[in-house]
Write a structure and sequence with these properties.
about 180 residues, 7 helices
């Protein structure tokens, strides 16, 4: 990955690089050598050769910027609209229960704003704007406290594996008494 810290080219830098490629295209028309173009534009010869190949195949439009490499994020205004949509509840968007998992929020973003996000991107978006994971405020009506208590007493101890006794030991592999 070329920019591991999530960086990349800013919009100004993308425009600058596109202008360089278009200047090179003007010089391709005149038939100038790649080494001369690279020296004048202060880029590598390989970059000029790659640009020339693209220019020969698709013309000057092949040298235009392709836009940002990352997926677009919802703007502040769009996030405010998303919060309003989430406040309406999942039932307003066609889901039966009252949960908002990340996959549903991702679906709402896609439907409402025509943006594609990853689940991790949705989580980061929510955390960045002050949202957090929620747990139910009250227990389920179907919960049977007696069954839970009996499970903790009877089944849980059997499910846990026995632990090694705590004794002083040696980390030496040559000592015969080492565990």
């Amino acid at each position: 990955m070329r920019y591991p810290q999530g960086g990349g080219l800013t919009a100004e830098r993308q425009l600058f690089r596109e202008e360089l490629r278009l200047k090179a295209a003007e010089r391709f028309v005149r038939g100038e050598a790649s080494s001369l173009i690279s020296r004048d534009l202060r880029v590598s010869v390989r970059s000029v050769q790659r640009w020339r190949r693209a220019w020969e195949e698709d013309g000057p439009r092949a040298l235009r910027s392709q836009g940002p490499a990352s997926l677009p994020r919802p703007s502040e205004k769009q996030f405010a609209q998303l919060e309003a949509e989430l406040a309406k509840g999942p039932a307003a968007h066609g889901w039966q229960d009252q949960r908002w998992p990340l996959s549903r929020i991702k679906t709402v973003i896609g439907r409402r704003f025509h943006l594609t996000c990853t689940l991790q991107g949705v989580r980061k978006l929510l955390v960045r704007n002050g949202w957090s994971c929620q747990v139910p405020a009250r227990r389920a009506l179907e919960r049977d406290d007696e069954a839970v208590a009996s499970w903790v007493k009877e089944t849980c101890p059997c499910a846990e594996d026995s632990r090694r006794p705590v004794e002083p030991g040696s980390s030496s592999r040559t000592k015969p008494a080492s565990p």
